[in-house]
Amino acid sequence: MMKIITVYELDKAPTAAGGAPGGEEAPVVRRVHAAPTAPGSSALGPRTFCGKDTFAMEAAPWKPSEHPGSSWYPPECADRLCSTCEAAMEDEF
After folding, report:
1. Is-contact 5 47, C-beta < 8 A?
2. pTM for the complete prediction?
3. Residues 6+ apart with CB under 8 A from 65
4. Residue 70's closest CA among 6, 8, 9, 10?
5. In sequence order, which residues have a C-beta less than 8 Å from that of residue 58 and are 6 or more positions away?
6. If we measure between CA atoms, which residue out of 93, 91, 89, 90 comes closest to residue 33?
7. pLDDT tens, N- to C-terminus, the chain (93 residues)
8. What DSSP element (H or E) covers 25?
9. What is the gyration radius of the CA atoms in the chain, in angstroms?
10. In the structure, how many helices (H) and strands (E) does the chain have?
11. How far is residue 44 CA from its own chain's centroid?
């Protein structure tokens, strides 16, 4: 059975007042993607279901396998889903 890893496509944005010292930038989730694990492994595969390279993406702490009956993405990120990954997830699972 193929496992799915939820990954974040990040943007760098200035932190709000009271954020990181020195005006450092904090990563902001721009888009949420789904990616299969690498063949024969539990590691993140090289591409998302929409074909984007996962190299610069960050694996989400959300693990779909730990939330049976729920969606493949964290509920708080529902407004940032990649529509192609979402369609692939609906078709495959």
Report:
1. no
2. 0.80
3. 3, 4
4. 6
5. 7, 8, 10, 27
6. 89
7. 678 899 999 987 655 555 555 556 678 999 999 999 988 888 999 999 999 999 989 999 988 778 788 889 999 999 999 999 999 998 766
8. strand 25-36
9. 14
10. 1, 3
11. 11
